[in-house]
Design brief:
The chain is α/β, with parallel strands linked by helices. The protein is 31% helix and 29% strand. The strands form three sheets. It has a six-stranded mixed β-sheet with strand order 5-4-3-6-7-10, sandwiched between helices. The chain has a two-stranded antiparallel sheet with strand order 1-2. A two-stranded antiparallel sheet has the order 8-9. β8 (229-234) and β9 (241-246) form a beta hairpin.
Amino acid sequence: MNGGLNLLDPALMRRLDQMSIAAKSRIRGTMQGKRRSKQLGSSLEFADYRLYTPGDDTRQLDWHAYGRTGKPFIKLFMDEQELQVHLWLDASKSMDFGRKEGVSPSKWEYARQLAAGIGYLSLNRFDRVSAAMFTNEITKQQKLLRGKGSSLRLFEFLASTEPEGIGDISAAFRNPSILPRQAGMTWVFSDFFYEQGLEDALKYLLAAKQEVVVVQVLAPDELDPLLMGELRLLDSETGAAREVAMSSKVLQAYKEAAFQYTQTLKSFCYERGITYLLALTDVPAADFLLGELRRNGLVR
């Protein structure tokens, strides 16, 4: 039951305690949180004064201002609202790649660490967090959690699944009933190795009024493989095999195609206001969470 405790180092968690998700737009939630919205409410952050009108809460009268001016002024405060943060993890078999003992985790292990970090700092700021695994359908879901005390439940959920099956992101997100019903922020962790349907899936999330963050998790070998000679390559999801003579020319063509694919995805995201992040598994998760997110304005 406590396997999720290993997802984040305690020292990293202490650093995350000082951070919060920086959404592009302040989103009004259903419960009061620690995120300032454009609404006026009852937080402790002062905003402005206005004259008292019948029906106002007399506890908000500023008697010092009354003593100076002889007029009854009401103190106004910024309303602090929650943000709903949704974490979606690609749990298809292709994510079970890249693990090198003592060097780097698999893509799946790395994606779980990143999701755990983002979920933790969100819960710590009283945002609400949900998580889900998908292949060609939603395979497992954790409903919205709230409060730092819910972190262990999130970690245990993330640690409870291993990758398997065939990925089809369009099929997974095609069902409107699984999409968030309230505006919020959605993070999608995947290698995004899909032949089709990726653009449709991201459009579904945008239509659900989500601020989308695409985190493409790749092993360095997938961009720069160290392979030569006569090889038999297997598709990790379908089991299909292909005989390949891996020459330097073929290898260079592969590298160019891999680079072009990531750039195409990045351009698609940029054109639609989606944040794109490339996460290589040989970069420590702490460096990504503390550095890359801040550089891209996603945390403060």
